[in-house]
């Protein structure tokens, strides 16, 4: 892993030298803008519209627009000096319970490892936090960006979760069209709660996949291989008219499969011949004559559909 930050955790008078590593990675597939005519990637330049010329990095300063078209400028050294005091220390302010923090506050996760001779202090802080069940709330500055952070134990490792400051969270009152009073149908509410119960399961993150990225990678591989691509048409969207019917259909769709109760006891009277092995797995429907044949003990005749001849050019359908 690449070290993204070096510094120390400070709580009370204890100083724990640590290295920071990013715990997550961006799996988005990066694409460039290409000139269709010649196949070359489009380049971006730093150009001043007033002077009508390209500008080098040495000629660029940081600026804050305090009025329309008016900026106050800062040199790189000024900003570095401003953040120098807090840039190398994670100062723990308080210890709290994790469940007290709403998930909206969390930003990005980093792993911390002991640096230099800080192994003993690192282990001490880790074990003390593990036994207390608390997490530390701290202030941290990464790449000149100051933020709050939550320090917690993750499988024998200290992890830092950067979190927003309270004034960075937009109030819910700004969300338009929220209902002022909640009014629900009691039967629909019961059905909705039943559906939630049937869909409830322990959280297993490994079973969730980025379907868009997987399909895009398959499409890229097919294009590289020179295959002809045929995209499946999108399913037409339809508005739900009957909410109760939609809830009922959803519950039926997620009902667990009943266990096999074993062979049924024979009934008196005419007995039917057992169905052919594997008939339940077939996709075709039995005809009336076949059903009558099965009832009279005669063998059932199943006709296989004719196989369509493959075309000269194979097409790959991407759904």
Could you describe the 3D structure shown?
- Helix content is 22%, strand content 26%.
- By secondary structure, it is of the alpha+beta class.
- Strands 1-2-8-11-10-9-7 form a 7-stranded mixed barrel.
- α3 (186-199) runs parallel beside α5 (243-253).
- The longest helix is centred in the middle third of the chain and has 14 residues, at 119-132.
- The chain is extended and about 65 Å long.
Q: How big a fraction of the residues is strand?
A: 25-35%
Morphology: extended
Distance between the termini: 36 Å
Mean pLDDT: 76
Radius of gyration: 32 Å
Q: What are the segments in which pLDDT stays under 50 over at least 5 consecutive residues?
A: 269-314
Helix-residue proportion = 10-25%
Instruction: List the quaternary state of the chains.
Output: single chain
Count of β-strands = 13
Identify the strand order in the major beta sheet. Answer: 1-2-8-11-10-9-7
Topology pattern, helix = H, strand = E: EEEEEEHEEHEEEHHEHHE
User: Sheet with the most strands?
Assistant: 7 strands, mixed, barrel
Question: Which class do the helix and strand fractions yield?
Answer: alpha+beta
Structure annotation, total helices = 6
